[in-house]
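Section: Multi-chain targets

For targets with more than one molecule, the full set of components is provided together so that the structure can be written out for the assembly as a whole rather than chain by chain. Components appear in the order listed by the source. The example entry contains two components.
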Amino acid sequence: MSTSRVRLSPEERRLQLLDLGARLFATRSVEEISIDVLAEEAGVSRGLLYHYFGGKQDFREAVIRHAVEDLVEQTAPPATGDPLERLATSVGVYVDYVIANLTGYRSLVRAAAGGSEDLRAIYEEARSALTDRIFREDSLGDHLHDDAATRLVIRGWSALVEEMVLTWAADPSVMSREALVDTLVGALPALTGVVSGDRPG
Amino acid sequence: MSTSRVRLSPEERRLQLLDLGARLFATRSVEEISIDVLAEEAGVSRGLLYHYFGGKQDFREAVIRHAVEDLVEQTAPPATGDPLERLATSVGVYVDYVIANLTGYRSLVRAAAGGSEDLRAIYEEARSALTDRIFREDSLGDHLHDDAATRLVIRGWSALVEEMVLTWAADPSVMSREALVDTLVGALPALTGVVSGDRPG
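Its structure, encoded as tokens over all components, is:
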């Protein structure tokens, strides 16, 4: 921690500490993310962490929120290209993120599903951000109607993606990463095609 | 409780008590299912319930297992008919079950996801039973290969169904029950079509 002594603003210092904390997320469950663990792992003083983050609970939430924002940012599709190829890039990064952060990510999904209201809020925000982007980016071009029925199907698709990636990560011998990404991407127009079949015209 | 005094065997009596307990599941979360609540609601003595079920935890698990077995039994598709129509009957009953038992079912999904190992085991057993039946019943006829890749997709479809039905139940104005069932049923061949597109031949 003493190689470069660049003077950081409090905001930059807080961000640096959050980055360190988010790295714990790769191999620790949400319950294991704590000021004590980061202090020990990264050689940061507990006093400093309390100074920047207040209580233990605030620290945990800030770290998980940061890790999840990182996921949303990383999975941003490229600005141009074929819609489904852009979606494939985004889904591919999501798959890689889950593999790289399996312990933390799986525990977040479980904690959010299991009744922790604060974690559920963080998780739902990320999910909404990812879903809204699918409409904003118009990944499927003319195939995607932005209506309540399609949003319900996209929500179902998100659950399918999460379940398939977490199950696959536990046993990747089932199919290659490329076949997984292809299946997840192909599932979206297949599903929205089913619901649009319901419409007149 | 004194209208008919038919003499029941211990096994029949236990089943009768489980049926009473499973009714609590309609409007109570898994945490709220207890010997005390059943004793009060159904006018059964706590002593009798302890006699038949041992401890509080054993009672809760027995009731939830019974409710879930009931779900699996009720959703059995008709023995004959067009494969997708048989699946539609099954999915329709599932939708109705979730609506009728929304509080209990949603709390079970959350508790199972959230780290309660015993409840997760019950939930996973039910999920496997429902998934295995899709292959056994051959709902999709020749379209359904029983291989690891297809099983992964079916698991994804299960997650999609659960998410869509629970989300829809919170706001059924999005689409009719019939449109929901049609979408869920149509999603299965659409999804398995995507994964079989991955195969040679």
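The mean pLDDT of chain B is 87.
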